[in-house]
Amino acid sequence: MPTANLTDALVKSLKCDSGKTVIELRDTVVPGPELRVWISGAKTWRLHYTRRSDGKRRATGIGTYPALPLKEARRRAKGLQSEIEDDDERADPAAGKQVRRQSLTFKELADEWIERHAKANKVARSVQDDCSMLARHVFPEIGDFKAIEITKRDIIKLIDTIAAKQDARIRTIEKARKLSHRPNRIFELIRSIFRWRHASGGQRRPANDPAARHCD
């Protein structure tokens, strides 16, 4: 692996060699950081490290240049290296990213809740109403979000958006009115889904997963 004493000027000037898709240059000042320069002109930072649990070499992305300049890339690399050496619960950054990629989206979680919980415990009309609320109001806003990454701020924004909508059942402009009880029902529906996931392991996540509590 080519190495260099990276400088701001060098990082800024580097270009991908002709005939290659990407070039990689390892920093010699701070162990681990690597600059990758792509044929498109994009530049990304990676950290190479050894996982303490089994001694395997791993690599994880830590940011893009110039959003993450050289000084900050080194600082971030040092911080991650320190966590790895301490062998704490975040000691494998690459594994953490893999878990996030594999976690369910909110739509996938809600579909699982419908099939495994709602249909078994609620009357058909209630299930149909839940599906309608999810499809019309929730999935367009947060359906593609990873359920584990949804925050309280995301839920508040969603409820505010729903509260601002006009009641679709009112057809004339003169009679148009805002939805009233529907935002509260949707909030309770979302909370029920997360609580079910927390209680049953519906997404196969740890019991202390903060996403299971953000609606409380």
Describe, in plain words, how this protein is organized in 3D.
- It is a single chain.
- The protein is α+β, with helices and mostly antiparallel strands.
- It has 2 domains: 3-89, Double Stranded RNA Binding Domain; 106-212, Orthogonal Bundle (DNA polymerase, domain 1).
- Helix content is 46%, strand content 14%.
- The chain has 7 helices and 5 strands.
- A 5-stranded mixed beta sheet has the order 1-2-3-4-5.
- Strand 2 (22-27) and strand 3 form a beta hairpin.
- Mean pLDDT is 77; it is low at 168-180 and 202-214.
> What is the mean pLDDT?
77
Beta percentage is: 5-15%
Biggest β-sheet strands, sense, barrel: 5 strands, mixed
Q: Any idea what the shape is? A: elongated
What CATH first level of the largest domain would be assigned? Mainly Alpha
* CA(first)-CA(last) distance: 50 Å
* Rg calculated over all Cα atoms: 24 Å
Poorly predicted runs of 5 or more residues: 168-180, 202-214
- Gross CATH architecture of the largest domain: Orthogonal Bundle
Q: Helical content, roughly?
A: 40-55%
CATH structural fold name of the largest domain: DNA polymerase, domain 1
**Helix/strand class:** alpha+beta
Report the count of strand segments: 5
Number of domains: 2
Helix count? 7
The strand order across the widest sheet is 1-2-3-4-5
Helix/strand order: EHEEEEHHHHHH
